[in-house]
From TrEMBL:
The organism's place on the tree of life at top rank: Bacteria
GO MF, one annotated term: methyltransferase activity
Organism in which the protein naturally occurs: Kitasatospora xanthocidica
Name of protein: Methyltransferase domain-containing protein
Domain Methyltransferase type: 42-138
SUPFAM superfamilies (UniProt xref): S-adenosyl-L-methionine-dependent methyltransferases (SSF53335)
One biological process term in Gene Ontology: methylation
Gene3D superfamilies assigned: Vaccinia Virus protein VP39
UniProt keywords, alphabetically: Methyltransferase, Transferase
Amino acid sequence: MDRQQISRLAHAHHPIAAPLADGSVARLLDRAMAGTEQGRALELGCGEGAWLLRALAAGPGWRAVGVDLDAAALTRARESAAALGVARRIGLHHLDAREFTAEEPFDLVLCVGATHAFGGLLPTLAAARELLAPGGRLLVGEGFWQREPSGAALDGLGAAREDFADLATTTERVLAEGWTPVFGLVSTEQEWDEYEFAWTGSLAEWALDHPDHPDAAAAREAADRHRTGWLHGYRGTLGFVTYLLRRD
């Protein structure tokens, strides 16, 4: 069972692929689009387009572009856009986000929970800088260490200590790259727990509902492994911050 299929199933009931509740998503988009009746938004690693579809629903004068490697997720994004009546205002590209280029810059660039596509936060900032219009904004979400990670936490994440830093250091790195945080949200423990239970629960439920499917056992195994890594490893250790950034 490939990683893309697992992710699609796991996010069936939590389409935002990050530990953010609906209210937090709404607040972040409201600040990111504030004072702009029309504009162009780009999401790098858009999946099924949840962020962009919400942005288009909130901003009738906005247009959007999404980029992702998961063709099936993009198909669902197109279907959702048609159902919402915003299909003419969104373009979706089956492409590695690192290879995306555009003739016109964007007023808002988003990459929340997908910085791994670029190899981390700092390469994501560098890529976004090339795509953002002067005065534009970047909405980027990244993990950070809430406390020193134990061996169990690192094993549960399949991560190394140097993959993340604490919140202060992460923010200082952003500033050092010439970006200024103008807003931000740190996900709460409740948001994390809801996200992880939704992730593991959706995957496990799919396996229960499709016991004869050839991928059922793999889906259940992935859900169990993820749940164990979270509850016995990184719960309370890995945090998540979403910054709204502008260039100096």
